[in-house]
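Sequence in, structure out. First:
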Amino acid sequence: MPDISHRQDINNLVAAFYNKAITDPTIGYIFTDVAKLNLEVHLPVICDFWEGILLGNPVFRGNPMLTHLTLAEKTALTQVHFGVWLAMWEGTVRELFAGERADLAIQRAKDIGRLMLYKIEQRR
C-alpha cells in the first residue's frame, strides 16, 4: 500500500473521508445541517490544510480553530463527536495508505482533535 506522497493522495483521502462523514449518524448532521458545508468549496480548503501538514506546502489560508469554536456555538461538539471523527479519519487513512505520512496524518488529527476539544470545553 502506498504512502501519502502528493496532492492527489490528499484529495482522495479527504473525499473518501467526507463521503463517510456526511452520512454518519453521529456526526453527519454537523456537516450537512449545522455547518451546511458546500463540499465543492470546502474540500479544496481542507486539502490545502492537509497538504501543508503532510507535504510541507504552506497553501492553507484560514483559522480552523476559530471555525470550530464558532461551530461549537451552534451545536454541541463533544468527545463523542471527536471520537467518531477521529476513528473515521484513521480508518480512512488506513484503508488507502501506509507509511510515515499516513501515520503523521493520524497523529496530527489526534493532536488537533484534542486541542480543539480542549478549547471548546474552555469556552463553555
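Second:
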Amino acid sequence: MSDKKVRVRFAPSPTGGLHLGGVRTVLFNYLFAKKHKGDFILRIEDTDQNRYVEGAESYILDCLQWCGLVPDESPVVGGRFAPYRQSERKSIYREYAERLVMQGHAYYAFDTPEELEQNRKEIPNFQYGQVYRKGLRNSLSLTEHEVDQLLDAQTPHVIRIKMPADERVSFNDMIRGHVSFETNQVDDKVLLKADGMPTYHLAVVVDDYLMKISHAFRGEEWLPSAPVHLLLWDYLGWKANMPQWAHLPLILKPDGHGKLSKRDGARLGFPVYAMNWFDAKTGELTPGFRELGFLPEAFLNLLATLGWNDGTDQEIFTLDELVDKFSLERVSKAGAKFDFEKAKWFNAEWIKKSEAGSLKSEVSKVLTDKGVIVTDDAYLVKVIDKVKDRCVLLPDFYQQAAYFFEQPKEYDVNSVKSKWTDAKTEFFNLLIDRVSGAETWDAAKLETTFKALAEEKAIKVGELLLPFRIMLVGGKFGPHVFDIAELLGKEKTIQRIEKALDLFNS
C-alpha cells in the first residue's frame, strides 16, 4: 500500500434492481476503505440514457441505506468532486475524447447504425477494428477535407479508440496477479457517442482520474475491457495515477455453472436482488432479500463469505469485524457458488444473535401486517426473546409469536383426540382450580403445580404436555410451554384451557 489516500467507488448504472453481486462489490469497496481510513464514493453512471430506468437511482440509494453501507460522497451528500452523476458531467468528457483524436489515439466514425448492421449481417464475427476500419466511414479512411465537411455539417458521429496493432498491455490485479492482453484481439470501442455522452470506457477513466480514485474493484466480467482502459490511462498521460485494480470473482449459480442471474432466482425460488424492485417499464416485480425477511447484517455477512474468508473457521461477522479482518489477499480468484440454504442459516444465526429490542420494529410490522394488534412494546420484546431462536426469516415471527397476542385461529385437535380421556379432562379442570387463586404467576411455579397434579392423578407428564401446548398455541410448536403460559398470564391461560377442553370433548 502506498501513502496515497485510499478512495474507492461504486459506480452502478441506474438501469434496474441491485443484484447481490453488486452489493458484494459495494461491501468489499466499503470494507477496504474503512480498514484503510479512506473514503467510499457512490458515482451514478447514467450515460446510457436509452437504458435509464426511472426510480433506479433512489432504489440503489435505499439499498445502501438498508445495508448500512453509507457513502462518504454521493449525489445525495455531495463532496468536493461533485457532481456524482455522469449525466451532469457531460461537458467534461468531449475535451478528453477530442484530445485523443488530436494525438492520433482515437478517430471520428460517421457510420450509421444501418451501415454497421449491414456489415454484421455480411461479415461473420464483424468487429470495428484493425481489420475493417480502413473500409468504413471514419477519419482514418476519409480525407481531412471530407472529415472537416462532415463535422461542419454536424453529421452524427462517434469517437472510437484506435487500438494499436501487435502490442501487449498488462497490469497487476490485486486478486489475480499479472494479467496481460493482446491488442489485436480488442475492437475499437466507442468512447463518445453521437449524443455527446461518453461510454463507460471513457467516463470511468476520466472520472476515476478527476475523483482521485486509488483502488477500483469490479466484477471479473469487466476484465475484457481492461486493455481499453489501460491504454486510455496511458494515452491521457495519467498512467502514474491509475488506480490499483481488483477484479472480483463471480457469484455462481448453485450448481456452479455460470453467473447467478435474476432468472435463476425465479427458477429456483430465491431472490437475487437486495430489495424488491418494481420495473415501471415492464410492470415486473422482482423479489428482494429484505422483503423475504433477511436482516441487513445477515445479508452482508453472507455476501462477505462469497469469495472471501479470514483464514479461520469463523463464519458470523459483524460489520466492524469485517472491516478489521478484510483483506484482498483472502479473496478467491474462483467464482463462489450461491447456496440459499446457507443464506437462510446466516439469517437464523443473526436473529438469534440480535437483542430482542433491536428486532422490535421489524417483528411489529410482520405481526401488524397480518392483522395482529400489538399495543405493548415491553411485552413484544419479551415475546421476541422467547421465540427468536425458532425463526429463520422475519415472517416466521407470525407463526411463532401471534398466539401471544390473540387466541389461536386453528387447533391441531387430531394430535390429541385419539388419546384423549376423561381423566385428562379432569386433570385440566383441576389445574384450573389449583392455579386460579395463585397470587404469583411464573413458569417455575406453574410447572411444579402441573407435575405435582399429574403425579397425584397418576398420569404421565409427557401425555399432558402436548395437549397443554396445543391448548395455548394451537399446534406442536413454540418455546417451553410453561414459559408460554407465564407470558400469556393467568387469565388467558385459563381461558385457553377452557376453550380447548370444549374442542377436545366435542
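Remark: The two ends are 77 Å apart (CA to CA).
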